[in-house]
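Hi,

I'm pasting everything inline rather than attaching a file, because the server keeps stripping attachments. The sequence lines come first, and each chain or strand is labelled.
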Amino acid sequence: MNSNRKADLQRRLSMKAVPRPPAGLADRIKADIPKYLEPETERGRFSRTVAFPMRIAASILLVVTTLIVTVYLVETPHEEKAPVAAPGAFAPAPRALPQPATASTAPEEVRFEVAEDTAVEMPPIAMATPPPPIVAQRRERADIVAPTQVVESGVERDAEAGIAGGVVGGTAGGVVRNAEPQSVAAQDMVTAEAAAPAMAPTPVAPPAMAEAAPARAALMATGRSAQKMATTEVLGISVDPQNFHRIRATLESGGRPAASEVDVEAIVNYFAGPPARRPRRGVALDVELSPAAIKAEGDHAVLRFSIDTPAANAPAVSNVRLEVVLNDKVVSSHKRIGGTEPLPAQSTLPNGTSVTGLYALELRPNLNATHLVATVRLHYTLNGRTSTISRYVRGRDLPRNWQLSSRRHRLASLGAVWGETLKGAAPGFDIARRAEELATQNPKDAKAKELAAAANASADGGR
Amino acid sequence: MITPLDEERRLLAAIRAGDREAAEELVERTYSAVFASVYRLCGDSDLAADLTQETYQKAWTALKGFDGRSQLFTWLYRIAYTTFLNHIRRPRRMTSLDEPDSIEVQDERPRADETLADAEEAERLRKAVMKLPEDLRFTVTAHFWGGLPVKEIAGIEEITTVAIRKRLHKAFTLIEAMLEEEEVQ
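And the predicted assembly:
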């Protein structure tokens, strides 16, 4: 249709060819006006206007509430029956007393937990069955002394008799809990990546916790190397960025760092870094599961947890305690990459803190989407109020391949493989290629480039 | 034709307060335009008068529901249009849109501005408009015969003014096709 035809049609439609209304039409209409036009009150009109939106809002609220409740009910696993106790308030549950080592029934979960020291008396702890090979391998390493306690198959073992008096454990829900003296956290230097003033020594532990100081000394003497203690740590996890810089300098000079100089935890934290966006207040817990970055020694998975605090100007969280519970039904063995267990509690997490830890999990072949793989809980106190963040990791959270996981997770897990390769704890793999892929995907990511360069340097110089 | 907004508000407030004179004033101001719109829809002066009267009867009843979001005449036109549709849908009183004799203009008063040819052409056009799909038909009649601005129609239909213009364009195309088809026959 051209514009002329359109204009002609409009003109014809607009032509006024209407007769006048018949005489008397106005009177007929006026005669129909009701004698009493019903006055409507302002209130009535307002109610009518508001009623419909209010009904819609109420419906939306109802639907959202129903969804939240449904999701909560569906997500709450039946296995999780352990009560969330306030720090320092672990009371042994009657049902959950440690079972003798000779018991034939295996518990359902393996739980790692670090609790604040309490004066709760514990029954004698049963001796554990031998640890799995993966744990044994880690304990044999020269630079990391055997962990204070090894928890396996629901039985805890006090590895160091000297600290037995300072270790208090409790059991709940059929799961063994371990505790490490609070003074560990109190004496550790808490570090933050940004807030230097906030990196002062943490406050003095409460009296009950201070009693464990001798145990702490014993722990230092028997458990951790001096180098480990000198590094900056958060929740017992090394976050010292200088470790990577030293390694890089060594590689760039053509050498190869000694195994004792390589701190895998620190490398993991260097590459994991802070999140893209920090929480505004409180603390954030990020948990992710993925296949291994580079397949070796079977098809294991990598569980990552990252804890982040606000950048600044937020109340610091205190009494921080991380609890990782692995479901023994689907996890056949595990190890914490680059670190020991259990993780100590931390009395204060300053602003600007980021810490990442990794677990290598050997998953059973019967894993399906609904199986609960792990539960990670972060207990903390903020403004005098104790809270717990829980993250449930299920089979469906395991992506098909490593490339589908988050960038932070990929950098951390790849950094871990590289670190272990440097230490000789794992055979060498084509880490550089993976890192280069990461760097290619996001050219602005300096960390990926650094990792690729370092991996190339180590591959050239070391092997 | 269309009462200015402030005047409309004053009238409405008075009517809602029970002022009969205000209601009569409203009738005086609007009934000619309503009649003209209905006449263009049905093409029959007597029928248009009846439908106009029926329109106001419905308006008094529905006055409580008028929220003032559109102009008063827009609201009245919508009632008139619905009244017309109800009329042609009534089984026994339905006015056939296809039979020329049934919709002959019965008004015998002289129409100085129209020739017979113009009247025939206007009737052909009216029939073509009546054959449009409902949404296009309302848009065309409200805009050209009711005199409603595009924005007002968009408000009634709860769509954008762009969508109204698209409707008009589509309607023009269909009307032209129908007129050409009629010429061929």
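The interface with chain B takes residues 1, 5-6, 9-10, 12-22, 25-26, 28-30, 32-40, 45, 49 of chain A (CB under 8 Å).

If the labels don't parse on your end, tell me and I'll reformat.
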